[in-house]
Amino acid sequence: MFNIKAVLSIVVFLNMSHVDSAAEHRLPRVVTPLPAPKITDLPQFQGEHKESLYWGTYRPQVYLGVRARTPKSLIAGLMWIAVKDSKYHLRHVCKHEDDLSTYGWTMHNGRDFGHQVLVDHGMTLTTGFLKSKEEGSGYGGDWTVRVCVQVDQ
After folding, report:
1. Residues 73, 124: contact at Cβ < 8 Å?
2. With contact defined as beta carbons under 8 Å apart, do 74 and 138 qualify?
3. How far apart (Å, rounded) are the C-alpha atoms in residues 63 and 145?
């Protein structure tokens, strides 16, 4: 049986939060943009600096994701299937319920390289990201990702 006081408290709380948010939405909002250029449009963020940051690990909330800094970029990432409790689980997006004992970058300079370790229930994935700019490279340089998998017996 539900505790009637707890249920009434929840109903009152939800009702009060709805009333407060409705009052906020009635207030007029004024947004005035700053009359200055965007920081990314300043000269120090152009040219070689901008090109060096074109490709990178710019995909949040995934275990590994690589993309360019353009709206319709090619997207590359890591996805694998893990077995837990005799069920298959797809891994791609970082979720707390995935229950990985370790994941994240152990080294990363934000520009040219990164190294990370992911430990998923008896399986260790090691990833490396490396980017270089040589003669003949395309805009933003050339990049590669290496994935090593070790299964604990």
Report:
1. no
2. no
3. 13
- Tell me the pLDDT tens digit for each residue of 42-54: 888 888 888 999 9
The first and second tokens of residue 68, run together, are 């360019």
- SS in 3 state form for the chain? CCCHHHHHHHHHHHHHHHHHHHHHHHCCCCCCCCCCCCHHHCHHHCHHHHHHCCEECCCCCECCEEEECCCCCCEEECCEEEEECCEEEEECECCHHHCCCECCEEEECCCCEEEEEEECCCEEEEEEEEEECCCCCCCCCEEEEEEEEEECC
pTM (two decimals): 0.69
Residue 99 makes CB contacts below 8 A (sequence gap 6+) with 84, 121
